[in-house]
Amino acid sequence: MKQGRISTRQVAILLLTAQLSVTVFSQPSAVYRVFGYAGWQAPLMALLLAAWGTWTALSMTDRFPGESIVGVSRQVAGRWAGSLYALGLAGFWVLDAAVITATFADVVTSSLLERTPLAAILLLLLLPSAYMAALGLEKLVRVADLLSLVMAPLLLLLLLVPLQNVDFGNLRPVFTMPAGLLQRSPLEVLQSTFFLRGFMFLYLIRPAMARPSEAGKALWVATLVTAGIDLVFFAFPVAIYGLPVAKVLVWPYWEAVRIVRLSGFPLERLLYFMVVTWQTITFVNTALVLYCVVAILGEVFGRERTWWSLPLALPPLYLLARWPRNAVQTRLLQFAWLGSGVVVVLVLPTLLHLLAMVRHQGKSKP
Hints:
The structure is a single chain. Helix content is 70%, strand content 0%. By secondary structure, the protein is mainly α. It has one domain: Hydantoin permease. The two termini are 24 Å apart. Helix 1 runs parallel beside helix 10 (215-241) and helix 2 runs antiparallel to helix 8. The chain has helices at 8-19, 27-35, 41-63, 69-77, 79-111, 118-135, 137-160, 186-193, 202-205, 215-241, 243-246, 252-258, 267-300, 310-322, 327-359.
């Protein structure tokens, strides 16, 4: 891949937006259910997973400068095995976009647009995202940069307005309850902590940066800001409702905003602001994921132009996003996403990097 003109600031904004997916609405429920009042451990565990993934991504791209994940995996594992891994990564990204899209559609149809067909909401999100993905990474970065001017004040508003109902006394048990991390199964822990995943985009973004050496800086800025915002989303529902109520809410922070009363400002308008904010975030997130999918498919099959692969990615994405009809199907989709994600973006890249080190492949550090 040729070195591009994407700045460090633009990459940080893109990765911040990509990590602030709409799943933050449902993520607190998993944290409350698994950790209880020891939920402060979830962001720490998420940061540890992010540190693992970031170290692997930066080490791999340092060892093979200018190469995408397709080129790296082919050099280390061989052409066929490397291509198979790259296709598996593309499949995970399709599943990742399906989970995000399905969650956003569920929030909107259940709370605001109850009469709007699900298909219309999905297509309204997927088609513009597919168009942006087809235009390429540099144009997608510019669009994300412009949209951040709209997203930032709306996000700040949504973080501040619930303060009027916060009772920090409800958080007192957080500091007195024993830690609960070791009392849970690994699957439960991963389900509630696998949400800082910006590192997985670094394999395709770093080669296009104007200053690839600053990729780690951009990623950690985005990750730490995301972790801070997520912490607010976790803490405020407990501070407002108390844990016994907050953990039975499907979308705790949505409910924290729903009860806000502002003098002379209709509540419904505030909820629409919330939808617009997360529509913007989900649009950028889905467009970036689709770009990664089409870039991988284009490189695997040796096609310079990648737009042709969008028809291969969109139908399964749409069908997966429409598939969950009940809680059981939703959990199955989430478990499939979680299991495949841990394998293809954490475990296998680490094994590839260790294999490259053992074989002395790539550019080793002096």
